[in-house]
Amino acid sequence: MPKKKSPEEQVQDLVRSIRREFEDWKRIKKFGAKDPGYPDGVNLNLVRNHILYDQEKLRELCRRECPKEAKLKAPRQVSSEYMAKKRKK
């Protein structure tokens, strides 16, 4: 059975996750998600929801002094039909 992480480890995991999700959102917005089943907007909004969820979990864990990632403004919600522009080769 895996060892339960300390609150400090959980906070650091959430901080890393939020940073990674912001980068994923930017990448999908610019280049697309390469997901043939869904428009890019669906994937962008899914990543946005992950950010909001992780920020809420982070605020629950730290209560007092939260890292800046807990307070970052989440990316805006986009149309589910949004598609990133195709890059010219």
For the record, give the distance between the C-alpha atoms at the N and C termini, rounded to a whole number: 49 Å
Summed over residues and divided by their number, the pLDDT gives a mean of 92
Number of strands: 0
Which sheet architecture does the biggest sheet show? none
Q: Could you name the ranges where pLDDT drops below 50 across 5 or more consecutive residues?
A: none
Helix tally?
A: 2
Following the backbone from N to C, one meets helices and strands in this order, namely: HH
Shape verdict: elongated
By oligomeric state, this entry counts as: single chain
Which radius of gyration do the C-alpha atoms yield? 15 Å
Structural class: mainly alpha
Overall helicity: 40-55%
Share of β-strand residues: under 5%
Labels describing this entry:
89 residues, mainly alpha, 2 helices, elongated
Describe what you observe in this structure.
With 89 residues, this protein is mainly alpha-helical. The protein has one domain (7-70). The chain is 54% helix and 0% strand. The protein is built from two helices and no strands. α1 (7-31) runs antiparallel to α2 (40-62). The longest helix is centred in the first third of the chain and has 25 residues, at 7-31. The N and C termini lie far apart (49 Å). The mean pLDDT is 92.
